[in-house]
Amino acid sequence: MKLTKSLPVIKERNCSVSLVLDCRTQRKNATEFPLAMRFTIDRKFFYYVVESTYTEKQFSDICNATKSASENYREQRMWRETIVPKYKNLLAELNKGSLFTYEMVRVAVTTGNTSLQTKDDRSFMSIWEKIIHDLKTNDGGTQFTTGQNYECALKSFRKIMGYDAITGFNISVAEIQKWKDGMKHGVKGKDGKLIGVNDNAKVYQIII
């Protein structure tokens, strides 16, 4: 019999929330996993651990329990009455009248702060930095080396273009070409020395 993997509990605007087991672990032969809320916003999701541990079979049985006298049903009811309302109310109060962003919900859930408002302060550089951070930290750092490659390219970009050359998303084809040329041939710094040459072909291919 196929086990139930999630229990949908909240739908607030563009955010869906389910109770799941957070099975992301590097422990070998693990059989029990912590109960977590999985928040999904625009196809991106994150886990927030909320309760004790269960086996996958226990979790499935609790999710499918329908008899009010059973222990599994009482456990499911406890989840719905003591865990879910906190996050349901949090989402209801968050950014009223507008849709959520992934980062807004993540910060609100982890800090309990519902005063956050929509503010798109992203930029070409901030997104690049976020990609580096995510590659280095997501999934236990399995893409750490790729993150280092992106970081190396960012340092090269700043050496060639300068730290304040790009604001917001205002970057032209000519500026991209200048960086590409700088990666190949280098540019002269203030001291007259050649800087910016990046001999890492992998980085060049990834970013360009």
TrEMBL record:
Descriptive protein name: Phage integrase SAM-like domain-containing protein
